[in-house]
Amino acid sequence: MKAEQIVLAIDGGNSKTDVMLVNTDGVVLSRVRGPGASPQTVGVKESLDCFGELAARAARAAGLSGEAPFAAHTAAYLAGADLPREEELLSAAVSARGWSSTTVVANDTFALLRAGTSDGVGVAVVCGAGINAVGVAADGRTHRFPALGRISGDWGGGAQMGSEALWLAVRADDGRGESTELLPAVLAHFGASSMTEVIEGLHFGELDLHSAVHALSPVLFRVAADGDAVAARVVDRLAEEIGLLAGVSLQRLGLTGEQVPVVLGGGVLTGASGQLLAEVDRRCRAVAPLAELRLVDLPPVVGAALWGLDALGAGPAAEAALRGAALPSPVAA
């Protein structure tokens, strides 16, 4: 297999990196997974070092030499490529590595949008560790958000949900907040006998705060689904935020009167209850009555690969083959 017939697809998330080599027939040649290496978190050089090592491993797993160039085209869709200026910087840095003849670097929400559509047109909202959205019109116009956290007006994502669960449980325990089943659920999650034990563990580093907060997100959703009013209000707030992200993009692109897909993805949404999704659908249709909600559980790296196949002019047959393939489980790096 020659590099001229291969796409190097990279899904660079905050918590993991997924790399896949796909040929122009839509056949997956290899797939490897490594740690999260967002350029905003670890730095551009360190991020690209990680991606390069994973690409070399993917090439060797595909029976290739493991030496660059690995492919004809690199399609890298990354958390942390939040602003056009960041995309331009990262695209230049990736191109300089010589992994392929051509390169596209974009935010990972574009990969979700392509995974959920046949042409990359519509609106996508991703809710994983964080939250973000992008919209693309048929004429190529785009609408996006900076997605830099609180400084850019963001609310939501797994980290936010877990943080709210902890905050509400603490306040229920010490009397500042409402009674909620989040309190016993959080205690059970940590195997603790008191919230003081949890607080001290987090404060003294005996419990990892980052991991702990993320792990509490499913706890909050479970308690809400069981009928707890306090937890349910947080889930309702998330539905409102997702509806706002999608609705603003639809309005700014003038798509409110069109039959347009609204693609949802990310770990929080793929594991969400039907009630949350129904509320998001209601809110989207209030803005765009013909909107079609689509929940995508394909790995985002598939969306990156589809954009790569588009760049190489692979055509519908290759897309159908890739979508129909039983993806190999990623080999941990």
UniProtKB/TrEMBL annotation:
Family matches, as InterPro entries: ATPase_BadF (IPR002731), ATPase_NBD (IPR043129), Euk-type_GlcNAc_Kinase (IPR052519)
Domain ATPase BadF/BadG/BcrA/BcrD type, residue spans: 10-308
PANTHER family: N-ACETYL-D-GLUCOSAMINE KINASE
Protein name (database record): BadF-type ATPase
Organism this protein belongs to: Allokutzneria albata
